[in-house]
Fold this protein.
Amino acid sequence: MAFKRIALAYCVQLERVISIASARREYFSQAEPRKRFDFLCSSEACRAQGIKVSASNYDKLPQDTRKAAHFSKFPHSTHLPDCEWFVEDDEDALRPGESAEEAGQRRIRDKLDAYVEEFDPAIAEEAAPPPADPDAEEQPPASAAVRADAPAAPRQRTQRRRRTRDFEQLVDTFRQARAELPADEFKQLDIHISGLGRIALRAYFQHIGYATPGSAGKVFYGGADLLPKRYGSPNRPQGFRFKFRDRIDGKPVFLYVAPETLQAYPHRRYLEDILGCAETVRYFTLYALGRLVEAPSGKSYSLEPDTLRHLAIIPGPAKDDASQSSS
């Protein structure tokens, strides 16, 4: 049996199974001095044996780089045979009930560190967050288990669709797929959007320079500069504003986050650390799920995220890196 890339792990300190994107948010949401987390395998049987998982780069801010945060097999660790991260030696063979198209998607996804098969854009209630992370991966219900009288299928769990509300994990999937997959495989890769259905992953993302005013229901992205002015009292979390480098119909496009919105966001320390990179990077890349609206004056446009959970800000490239572009 081979070992596939690990997408989820159990965080000992947080006491739940999380993605690497969630681990990064939680790490930077700690007060200084921050402490690294310990991780165990997400499979219950492995976890009961204390089998560890390595986590790399989650203690670093997301950058415009290919050194992505990721989980991996802990050196010299031995996972149990029914671990969900084991795969059959013959990955080209069709699995029970799997179509050729589904097998092709599986093989492409298995090349990625973080991947999302189904994204649920529903906005979780933020005023009273539940004990569990609302962005966490959804686990299959007990009713989804294999019947007791059915033949044993210890790796059946690897076939379940991974459904999440974690927007950053969706963005990580897109960024890594775009950077590392061959062009033909990137074009083939699809995703299931709750309430929308299955579409090509790249079709769910649209560069801001090609966006249509009034459009919504997709992820808009593009290079942007953080404007120096902050909004609100200096003694409280201050709002901020970005200006995109691309224009629409010759008009500038802005993204504004109000002070009260940042105040209510549970991971605002994480956002503040990202904004603090403004002096060392040439620009940021913003990813936002929301709507594009025209300002009342008609002189500009505003990209309005549905919620701060649907905004991802990637700092970089560094100012001394002249080889990167803003696309």
Q: What stands out?
A: Residues 125-158, 323-327 have pLDDT under 50 and may be disordered. Residues 270 and 279 are 17 Å apart (CA to CA).
